Amino acid sequence: MLIHLLVRSFLFMMVCVVVALLFNRISPHGLSLLTRYRTVVVKGEDVKIPLLAEAAASGRDASAVEAPESHPIAEISLQDAIKLFQAGGAIFIDTRSAEKYREGHISGALSFSIEEQELDEFAVLNLDYTQKIVTYCDGEVCSQSIDLALFLEEIGYYDVYYFLGGWQEWEAANYPIIRGDRP
Amino acid sequence: MKKEIFSEGLYHTIRVVLGFLFLFAAIHKIFEPSKFAVVIYNYRVMPVELLNLVAIIVPWIEILVGMALLIGVWVEAAALVLSGMTLFFIVLIISAIARGLNIECGCFSLDPEGSLVSWKRVLEDALMLIGGVYLMIHQLRAQLRLQPK
Q1: Tell me: the pLDDT tens digits for A112-152?
Q2: Does residue B148 form part of some domain?
């Protein structure tokens, strides 16, 4: 009887997988089966950052995602920041000190401390020039997020935003955060 | 006799409640798989390549478990899958709490202002696990009774 139960459960799971894949195929919100990611270098180690943006809308083919229009750096609010976060295609850059980053940062954000690192070191992160980037620092009292955004714009990144409310607003809103050295 | 009626009543109540809960938990996830993938990513336990696949399949397991329970077919199989899933969720949430992650649970809502991982979520899942195991045992015992001696 137990074997019977296990067989049925296995069949049940198979039905779920088939239905899920079929639905994904026809759904306008369907995703590519394997997640696109970008490999960035954090402290000499390769780290995969998933790009979960709705590749869906452009026909599931990652290569079909068009490069964004170039625009001057722009300020975004907490609401815009969480929207970009949820859409999944943007990379957040924490411009505060490495220590503050370790104590807690926006989930997935990379650390690039304006005060502790040379701007030229940004290249080490290995980010594409078309990458959507959101910089942030503590909050409205700091300017590192704007400084980095301006620098990125200057060297050719063309889809850059700075999130003015920064860490303070994000943390107060109880949005996803991670502690430690990893993004 | 009375005991049997009570047991049947309890069985159907748990079956319907869990059925609705699972349907409710999954219905918006199937229409926003990319948001769900972000939620899964935040747990930091899955290889990034597989985030999409998990975000595509898990909600449908929940949906079909919910439907099977509501309709009352393959209940023991659905209950076993439900129990396995909730057990996995419990381990996942506890590991997130232990690692100091302050992330959305992704249990019933994908709204970041919704429910964060917490012991309350663990308790909810534990109750569902108990319900799932009860349904499974109830069905297996019923099948045993039907078997020719």
Answers
A1: 998 888 888 888 788 888 889 999 999 988 999 999 999 99
A2: no
Judge: A5–B34 Cβ closer than 8 Å, yes or no: no
Q: How far is B134 from chain A (nearest CA, A)?
A: 15
Taking the C-alpha atoms of residue B39 and residue B6, their distance in angstroms, rounded to an integer, is 40
Task: Find out whether A120 and A104 touch, Cβ atoms under 8 Å.
Answer: no
* Chain B residues lying within 8 Å of A105, measured CB to CB: none
> Are A86 and B116 a contacting pair at CB < 8 A?
no
Does A131 lie in the same domain as A83? yes
For position B148, what pLDDT does the model report?
65
Where in the sequence is the domain holding A19, given as residue range(s)? 1-30
What domain count does chain A have? Answer: 2
Which chain A residues have a beta carbon less than 8 Å from that of B64? 12, 15-16, 19
The backbone torsions φ and ψ at residue A150, rounded to the nearest 5 degrees and listed phi first, read -65, -40
What is the ipTM for the molecules in this complex?
Answer: 0.90
Contact A125, A110 (CB under 8 A): yes
